[in-house]
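>> received
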Amino acid sequence: MKNARIHLTAAFDERAGSPRRLKSLVTLRAIVTGLLIATVAANVWLLLLLNLGVPAAAMMEAIFLALYVWWACGGGPPHKWQAARVAAFRRKTLSQAQWTWGLVAAFFFAVTIHASLVLLFRFVPFPTRAFRHGYDFSFIPTLHLRWLAVVISAASAGICEETGFRGYMQQPIELRYGSPVAIAISSFLFTAVHLSKSWALVAMIPIVFGAGLLLGLLAWSSKSLIPGMIGHTMMDVGLFAYWWTGIAGTFTARPISESGVDALFIVACAALTVSLSIVLLAISKLRRNTKSNTEDR
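>> returned
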């Protein structure tokens, strides 16, 4: 991995003049490449679903995602940029401890986001129409096929967006400006891309930006995209199934201004506090474990 980073840095150095110009070129290149890698690939599933139906589309998307990951982590042409792709994808073998803390962080990241949504819609009414606009799965004939579409949709977004935003965008900027700047930039653009959605109310912006920050920290602390992909996919399964399509139910709780503080509100507050604390603890453990493994080498 260290050799890959050196190769990536040298490749960019050859194409730049002053250090300031180099940093600007690296940042611009990372942003454009990350956006393309994330958004273009993530929309392949929608095209397949609308034109092939769920079973065939799911099979084709699985093949596409396998090839996408293979290429993004360094496989295939162009061989000239193979090392750069390896570095951008953060390809590495996770230790047992990293897998454990990575999975803990992934699960409680998803819990944190959903608890945040529950709390948000206890302060303001849940805008069902806005959240369901563009996510109508009624054309899919059976419930189990709808669930299959939900899982594939979530996996597609999780894999492609993490590769683009936390990999190809954030990782090169980390090398030039450090992790705080890189995570902030990737989180800002992650939020901006999602503002075009009908559910992107003003009150949703802090939640989307917060999700970007946590995913950015997870990628940085583990030096891998895998935990973030898992957490992002788990989050999106809930988003697609419950909040966006309604196949898992509909949120019906009234704002506390109407119902008062009830048990659901207290449970949501506790869930957010506990889950966020666990995510941050897991990220801290991942960072320490990653630094320890790096020093041992």
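>> Residues 4-17 have pLDDT under 50 and may be disordered.
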